[in-house]
Amino acid sequence: MNPFDLTGKVAIVTGGNGGIGLGMATGLANAGATIVLAGRNQDKGFKAAASLPGKASFIVTDVTKKADCARLIAETVALHGRLDILVNNAGMAIRKNPQDYTEDDWHRVMDTNMTSAFLCCQAAYPEMVKAGGGKIINIGSVMSQMGAPHAAPYAASKGAIVQYTRVIATAWAKDNIQANSILPGWIDTELTAAARTQVPGLNESVLARTPAGRWGRPSDLAGIAVFLASSGSDFVTGAAIPCDGGFLIRS
Ligand code: NDP
After folding, report:
1. Residue ranges per domain, the chain?
2. How confident is the model at residue 39 (pLDDT cuts 50, 70, 90)?
3. Which long-range contacts (CB under 8 A, 24 or more apart) does 146-153 make?
4. Which residues, at least 6 apart from 168, have a Cβ–Cβ distance to it below 8 Å?
5. Average model confidence (pLDDT) for the chain?
6. Distance of CA 191 from the midpoint of ligand 1 (Å)
7. Is residue 64 lining ligand 1, measured as CB closer than 6 Å?
8. Is 101 a catalytic residue?
């Protein structure tokens, strides 16, 4: 038996209509899972779903809204009869000095990166219990562990999601639900494209500090997503696993 086979499993990937989310969704689809992508941009969403092998669909969702998160889970179960895998990947950043953030900035980042995972996990939990277990993958960042001058709400949200993941991993282990975080390093996506052009020296410093000697690609996240979504990781829970080309271990 292939421990990484996801045939018959149903997976939701928030923010799966582009970037890292689509990289992970492609890995899950290639491993046999039926995929539901969630995000706000419909054009990107329908195109992304069409690019995936197997059964894949897109559900318009704003993950900062509790009703949308509940509807996402309910529609997925109505379409496919079950939910086995939830990837909380939707995220954003606002770059400012800590003293310059507005309260609205703060809440936008926290709501998108952290509260969204809380809302989706709460809605998904009863469905995973019904399915006899489940896999939750929350997307942190190297900023879950490090600091940076222009990342106050981003780093706070990414630290929080790792701690939240540890809590649900302990609480829901009895239900055969494993919850883990992935900490991506610097990956070439729309999120980092602006910073790469706007922040002098960023490109060079990422290349110098990353032992792999390159930026990551969304497809670099596919393997770890499949591992954490599959029975191959049934004894792995509450972990925060870097996928960063060695960025975090470099002094
Ligand atoms: P992208 O900007 O390419 O993708 C972000 C995704 O999140 C989009 O698909 C977007 O879709 C979705 N999203 C944003 N806000 C919402 C919302 N309110 N409701 C639903 N979906 C939303 O970024 P990345 O692929 O780079 O980032 C993905 C995740 O990886 C994020 O959590 C990010 O913090 C994390 N990460 C990224 C790193 C990198 O170097 N790129 C490094 C470490 C972590 P739409 O606009 O259609 O809603």
Report:
1. 10-245
2. very high
3. 146/248, 149/97, 149/98, 150/95, 150/96, 150/97, 151/93, 151/95, 152/96, 152/98, 152/101, 152/106, 153/94, 153/101, 153/105, 153/106, 153/109, 153/110
4. 121, 136, 177, 179
5. 97
6. 7
7. yes
8. no
Question: 29 with 51: CB under 8 angstroms?
Answer: no
The pLDDT, as a whole number, for residue 130 is 98
pLDDT tens profile 77-129 = 999 999 999 999 999 999 999 999 999 999 999 999 999 999 999 999 999 99
pTM higher than 0.85 = yes
Exactly one of 101, 125, 154, 164 is catalytic; which is it? 154
Residues 141-167 pLDDT 10s: 999 999 999 999 999 999 999 999 999
Judge whether residue 251 has pLDDT over 90: no
List the Cα angle 127/12/3 in 5-degree steps. 85
Distance (angstroms) between ligand 1 centre and the Cα of 174 equals: 31
Architecture of domain 10-245: 3-Layer(aba) Sandwich (3.40)
Indicate which atom in ligand 1 lies nearest the CA of residue 140.
44
CB 154 less than 6 A from any atom of ligand 1: no
Is the beta carbon of 157 within 6 A of some atom in ligand 1? no
Residue 91 CB less than 6 A away from ligand 1: yes
Rounded Cα distance, 41 and 106, in Å: 22
pLDDT for 220 beyond 90: yes
CA of 22 to the centre of ligand 1 (A): 10
